[in-house]
Amino acid sequence: MALIFCSHCGKQVSDKATTCPHCNAVLQAGQPQVQPQTAQQPFQQNTNATQQSVYVNVPGKQSNGIGTTGLVFAILGIFLGWIPILGWIPILGWIIWFFGALFSFIGLFKSPRGCAIAGFIISFIWVIVVVFVVGSIGAFSLFS
């Protein structure tokens, strides 16, 4: 058994086959054989049959914009929330932190979740640190 090339689709088939198993074209004895195609030379199909369009869904790189925004806002809020030199900056930092926590929470429900999880954890840790610092200041002010 020898392998020949289908004149319709260009794939290898048995010389004993009457139809191509790939494209179902009828193979005839003495039909010219098509050589395999290279990457530089795409296969040209010479047929009177109707052409079909094939759409391939190629998945693109996914991103979670709101989760990433939440992470960035949470980090900015931490740094801006502890600058007491300029009077309004800590308040701005807390507002940015709140939106970072909110966006991170919303981003947890979208895929991929990596940045949203990181932003949510950073926001949660910041709340714990603020509660600890405020509690410590309150405790020291009671005993002094």
TrEMBL record:
InterPro entries: Zinc_ribbon_dom (IPR026870). It comes from Bacteroides muris (ex Fokt et al. 2023). This is Zinc ribbon domain-containing protein. The lineage of its organism: Bacteria, Pseudomonadati, Bacteroidota, Bacteroidia, Bacteroidales. Keywords: Membrane, Transmembrane, Transmembrane helix. Pfam families: Zn_Ribbon_1 (PF13240). Coiled coil: none annotated. Residues 5-26 form the Zinc-ribbon domain. The chain crosses the membrane at residues 65-85, 91-109, 116-143. The keyword Membrane applies. It comes from the Bacteria. The keyword Transmembrane helix applies.
